[in-house]
Each structure stands twice: as structure tokens, then as C-alpha cells.
Amino acid sequence: MDWQELEVFQTLAHELHFGRTAERLHLSRARVSQVVQTLERRIGAPLFDRTSRRVALTPIGRQLLEDLTPHQFGIMQAFARAADAARGISGTLTVGFSSPMAGERVMGIAAMFRTAHPDCEVAIREVPLTDRYSSLRGGELDLALVEFPVCEPDLVTGPAIFCDPRVLAVSSAHPLAGRGTVRAEDLSGETIHVIAGLPGYFLDDLIPAHTSCRRPIQTTTSWQELLTLVAAGQGVTVCAEQGARYYPRPTLVYLPFTDAPPLTYGLVWPVTAATAMVRAFTQAAIELSAGIATPRPVPDHPVAE
């Protein structure tokens, strides 16, 4: 059996349609039929039952497919390892995350990445809330999945991976707690708690603006302390809806904004660290998030934004 016979047989066994098999392999239908007939003569028995309406594997064809599949996978893995080595895709990639949902998404991307690149390992680390970018700049992380926007001249922002609705967390005793939703103007006069160390441009994007708002800002270094202050009625905080899932408290209420867009999470890496592994992980993230977010092209060369 030559390589084309193997490829035609396995593709037709999955498609069960000569036309689609020909399209996938960029062959003519006549060539597909010819290859199958040659293979069946070599085997000495039909591999497919075919009529004008359907194509189906014969028992011998099914057995051949089952026997070939693990060997085919091994061959493809061998080629993948060789290609990865040529492109420098091997070793350990360290990926950060800044929130529980981002952590779950990183785990999913990492699983897909490891399957495609078996000689790679992925180490997952939490990003320090008070300094989201120091681990990237210091080399402890190769890339991270964090909240956007990221406007740092030495960092590259990749594709958006997912979005999460923006909400206002308040004490269950707060006057707004009985409302189903809130608007930006409801922040007027409220003390807003945030994590310390967030860049000014990030705060401007995080907290919905309103011309009549006077918004005193209080900072803290711990997310649990921040939630405790909010639950105690000492202010409010703007966050992602995932907070209601991962940090539920009987004394907290999470209220969606009706006039603020969702928070966006995406990949970011240092300008000097756009390696083949980083690009391969980013491509896996794009493929996994298809239909969830509209990805931007991965830069061929590091470009600061």
C-alpha cells in the first residue's frame, strides 16, 4: 500500500462519499475510484459497498480501518514532531491567567496544543492581580490570557479569546441590590473598589463613564478583601459576570450593566518573545475559540501596540 492509497482509503472511509473525498484530497473522482479499485485488487476483496445512493464500508473495510488507525496516528505524530523540531516548537511553554474563567480556557487550549505538539509541555501559572505584566517582562511567563485593554509598548496583544458581561457587585443591603440591572449613572457618588496597580487606561475602560459621576476610587491588594469590603457596604466594584459563579456570597449581588460592553479577554506576550511555540499556542487558542470571539491575525513579527 502506498501513501496515496492509505490517504484515499481513510478519507473515503470517513466521508463515505467519492465526491467529497476527491475535493478534500484535490483529486478527480475517477482517480479516487481507480485508487480504491487497485487497493481492493491487492486485498482480494471489496472494501466498500457502493451504489448510486450510498457508500458503506464492508466488514473487511471496517477491520482494515480499525487496524490502520493507530499506525496512521503514529506516523502523523512522527511527522509532527519532526516539523515542530524544525520550527523550534519543543520544550515548556509557561502560560498565565488572570481570572478563573481565563484559567479554564487556558487549560482547554493547553490540552489542544499538547495534542498537536506532543514534544511540548504547558505550565500554567496565575498572574499576580496587582501587577499583570511583571511576570511577562521578567520571563517567568511566555504569554498570558488577561483582561483587555493592554496598551504597553513592550507587549504584543494577540486575539480576543472570550468575552464576559460587565457587572456591578454590591452588598445585598445596598439600595441597588433589588434592581435587576444597573446603568453607568448609578455609579454617581459611589466608592468604587479596585485592585491596586491597574493602569489608568485600564481603569478608564473598566468603569463605565458618565458625565454626572463622581467616582471615588479605593484600592486593595486582595480580591477576597475587596469583596469583603463590598459585602460590608463600604463601596461597590465593577467586574466580570464570572464573579457570580466563582465568588458567590449570600451578602453580595451581581447586577448586569445595560449600557456597558462586556469585558474582553485575550492573549498578550512580550515583543521579544514571539517564538514559534507562542505562535502555535495562539493558533490553538484561535481554533478553539472559533465562534466565541472574532480573532485578529497573529502577527508574523512582533509589533508593539
TrEMBL record:
The terms describing its cellular component in GO are: protein-DNA complex
User: Which parts of the sequence belong to the HTH lysR-type domain?
Assistant: 1-58
What residue range is the signal peptide?
Answer: none
Specify the superkingdom: Bacteria
Indicate yes or no for the key word Calcium.
Answer: no
Gene3D superfamilies associated with the record: Periplasmic binding protein-like II (3.40.190.10), Winged helix-like DNA-binding domain superfamily/Winged helix DNA-binding domain (1.10.10.10)
Q: Name one Pfam family in it.
A: HTH_1
GO molecular function list:
DNA binding; DNA-binding transcription factor activity
Where exactly are the transmembrane stretches of this chain?
none
Which keywords, in A-to-Z order, does the entry hold?
Activator, DNA-binding, Transcription, Transcription regulation
Q: Which family does it belong to?
A: Belongs to the LysR transcriptional regulatory family.
The protein, known as = LysR family transcriptional regulator
Q: Which organism is it from?
A: Nocardia mangyaensis
Q: What is the lineage of its organism?
A: Bacteria, Bacillati, Actinomycetota, Actinomycetes, Mycobacteriales
